[in-house]
Design goal:
By secondary structure, this protein is an all-alpha fold. It contains eight helices and no strands. It has one domain (about 5-140). The chain has helices spanning about 5-25, 30-35, 40-55, 55-65, 70-80, 85-110, 115-125, 130-140.
């Protein structure tokens, strides 16, 4: 097990308790307290920085290749095709997923959504973000509407 395996595992495990709390105990005061600060997404962000710092030339190459639109996709594919690139991308995705899922959970709580609506959007928010957002937008309306 190398640094990239460990970073993949840690970024996944970091968000687990936050996701589980929003999914299983959405209205509990401990869930509310856990989701107040930035801790729910800081772990994967820190992991992204560590992994990215381990391969700084890859980011330099990506930035350089991004100046030529015909090269951008090839450079991104090359970066993501490495263990460092995949680990960094995973930490990036996990941080984004939990950040948006927290927003959807908060909106469900603020609007008094039914339990199944909250559970569905929180579940899919982390597992399949586009599905979670689509469900959320279809099922949750602001209480002022």
């Amino acid at each position: 097990m190398d640094m990239y395996d460990i970073s993949f595992f840690l970024s996944t495990m970091w968000i687990g308790p936050f996701w589980f709390a929003m999914l299983v105990y959405p209205e509990h005061e401990i869930t509310e307290k856990m989701m107040r600060g930035p801790w729910f997404f800081l772990g994967p962000i820190a992991i992204w920085f560590v992994v990215s710092a381990s391969e700084p030339q890859a980011l330099v190459d990506l930035a350089k290749d991004s100046m030529d639109p015909s090269n951008t996709m090839a450079s991104l594919a090359a970066l993501l095709g490495t263990r460092a690139g995949a680990a960094a991308a995973w930490a990036h995705m996990v941080a984004g997923d939990i950040f948006v899922t927290r927003w959807m959970w908060r909106r469900c709580m603020d609007n008094g959504s039914e339990r199944w609506v909250t559970a569905a959007t929180v579940f899919f928010g982390v597992m399949l973000m586009p599905v979670g957002v689509a469900l959320h937008m279809a099922l949750v309306s602001d209480s002022t509407d």
